[in-house]
TrEMBL record:
PANTHER family registered for this protein in UniProt: GLYCOSYL TRANSFERASE-RELATED
Signal peptide stretch: 1-22
Pfam families given in the database record: CBM_5_12 (PF02839), Polysacc_deac_1 (PF01522)
Residue stretches making up the NodB homology domain: 37-220
Keywords, in A-Z order: Hydrolase, Signal
Domain of life: Bacteria
Taxonomy of the source species: Bacteria, Bacillati, Actinomycetota, Actinomycetes, Pseudonocardiales
UniProt protein name: Peptidoglycan/xylan/chitin deacetylase, PgdA/CDA1 family
Residue stretches spanning the membrane: none
Length: 281
């Protein structure tokens, strides 16, 4: 109890120090932020020392972004994974401290839970002002006052529209079939990088992401509410004379770039042969 209270107090102090931004509304989002043949990938219940690195490797190989909905208790265990998620430019999402059913808590307990989770994420990332643009309620239990509290903490409440049920132990071919049958333009896909054996999830996306890109799909982030909302640029800012190896991600002028090979002087926005533009943060 003392540890939780200490964490909550620290979170309140950090939150007071953050710059004021537009407050999202309590609306729950079910679509990508851009229209067209676009998908948004989201991964819940991590970070996991076994599966999160594999998901991150795949996303780097395929030059894809995703949202990671992090559980506070796992964040505390594996801070280096949070640093890696952030360094790769993936937005993070508050998924509560211990994957609690928030409907069983009082409003005060809900707020304390989300504040403590934010503090844990920012502490693990080593960035007290890290953007945490999204909140996802465990089990999809949204509604008032949960979404109102999330909005007051600058989170957009993030739902999903495609669920391959990768938590039920099904093998990769079954997940491939489910995802293939369910996807549509602007869908938000729910999957997991924690909470169990996620090898089928990794294998399914290893097959599907290239297939979807060949079919004309691109990947973007889920929508946010109450804008203008600050960009979720989490990767380091590009620095001239910095040394960047293939796969390194940087931000410049509100966009995320990934190096195709070793580079030092080439500016991301003006060297498309060296840097792949992964789009706005």
């Amino acid at each position: 109890m003392l540890k939780r209270l200490t964490l909550t107090t620290a979170a309140l102090l950090v939150a007071m120090a953050l710059p004021a931004t537009a407050t999202p509304t309590a609306e729950v989002v079910y679509t990508t932020r851009t229209a067209g043949q676009v998908l948004a990938l989201t991964f819940d219940d991590g970070p996991s020392p076994e599966w999160t690195p594999q998901v991150l490797d795949l996303l780097r190989e395929t030059k894809t972004r995703a949202v990671f909905c992090l559980v506070g208790s796992e964040v505390v265990k594996y801070p280096d994974l949070v640093k890696r998620i952030v360094a790769d430019g993936h937005p993070v999402c508050n998924h509560t401290y211990g994957h609690e059913n928030l409907a069983t808590l009082t409003p005060e307990q809900v707020r304390a839970n989300l504040v403590a989770t934010n503090a844990a994420i920012r502490q693990a990332a080593g960035n007290p002002s890290l953007p945490i643009p999204y909140f996802r309620a465990p089990f999809g239990i949204f509604g008032s006052p949960i979404t109102d509290i999330a909005a007051s903490l600058s989170h957009t409440s993030l739902a999903w529209t495609v669920d391959p049920q990768d938590w039920d132990g099904s093998p990769a071919p079954v997940l491939v079939q489910r995802l293939t049958a369910q996807i549509y333009p602007t869908a938000i896909l729910l999957s997991h990088d924690g909470g169990g054996d996620r090898s089928p999830t990794v294998a399914a996306y290893r097959e599907l992401i290239p297939r979807w890109k060949t079919a004309g799909y691109t990947f973007d982030l889920p929508a946010t509410t109450g804008g203008p909302y600050p960009p979720a640029c989490t990767a380091p800012t590009w620095q001239r004379n910095g040394t960047y190896v293939a796969g390194t991600r940087v931000t410049q002028d509100g966009k995320l770039y990934q190096a195709n090979w070793w580079t030092r002087l080439e500016r991301p926005s003006s060297a498309p042969w060296t840097w792949t533009n992964l789009g706005p943060c």
